[in-house]
Amino acid sequence: MRLLIDTHILLWAAVDDPKLRGSSRAAFLDPRHDLVVSAVTLWEIGIKYALGKLPLPVPPRDFFAREIADRGYAVLDLRREHAERAAELPYLDREHRDPFDRMLVAQALVEGLPLLSVDGKFNAYASLGLRLLR
Prior knowledge:
Number of helices: 6
Number of strands: 5
Shape: globular
Largest sheet: 5 strands, parallel
Strand content: 5-15%
Radius of gyration: 14 Å
């Protein structure tokens, strides 16, 4: 099964963070799963790096390329259909306005991919058909 991974999953896996545990870790490590990372994740990492909120040993582009090469992630580029779906998403959780998360939701819905994330904010989108793995 193909799984779209949330940004924090990619970051935790990169440093073997103990926060990646339980069923999330099992899903991530399951060889039957093809892990997909969104180009939106590179954008999010780049912004956090530029703002000084995310220290990285190398620039974001190099970090992203290394993780893709080392872990064999498939990359999901941003397409018009994703942007259209994101624009149509209702604000089901008034507190949750993160554009990166909204785009991941849209990509998961358009591509029919489960989203691997421990972020509880995504629960609101299950009513729209978002499949979550934790």
